[in-house]
Write a structure and sequence with these properties.
With 245 residues, the chain is of the alpha/beta class. It contains six helices and twelve strands. The structure holds zinc ion.
Amino acid sequence: MLTTRKKFLAGIGAAAFGSLFELRSSFAQSSPAQRWKGAATSKIKRWDVITIGNLSRNRYWGEGDARGVRPAICTCTVIAGDSFHLLVDPSLADGEQMAKELDRRTGLKPSDISAVFVTHEHGDHWAGLPNFPEAKWFAGPIVTKILNKTGKFKKPIEPTPDRLFDTVEVMPTPGHTAGHTSLRFDCDGKSIIAAGDAVATHDFFRDRRGYFNAVDFALSAKTMDRMAKAADIIVPGHDNYFLVA
Ligand SMILES: [Zn+2]
């Protein structure tokens, strides 16, 4: 009886040691130094979501793809360094509303925005572009051509260099449209991608599913896999930002 009890207690000790060891090693794996993909130092001091987007129809809410059931707004983000404010996907056509949301989220005025970047040619992602007449306007090369051809803008959109403000990486992310382009940057040791519609919402990202109007669903899925490897945080085109699992 005594030996059995001893063995039993020894067993408990080993099990406890084992689970403690597992706990310690899983803690080590999730320590920030190992987990995050971003550079430790960055010229990006902060980033803020201005409008949290929504879709016109969302299959994850039980809505069909055939028709929109509400107006879509895209997610709009400001990336800020010491000497610049870069706004991604100006979402609101109404100038007063755009200025109000920008002020509410950052305290900035439209004239404080140094550059605006448009991820792709769909109207909900550039609706607010004319509200930033003093900023430089950028998009990927294909998107630039498409938008400038429309004749809708008072000044030309310029094809973006490989990096904006020497620090924000321009990342081709085709699939939703052929010329779709996203931005990747580091902040607080984390790697962040402002994805535009390369990622519609968190649900679409989990399933690596393109939105119903994507031009190439297989390419969309590949692009999302590539983004998952590069990012800690994704700012999707029509949802709040989320951590890449
Ligand atoms: Zn789109």
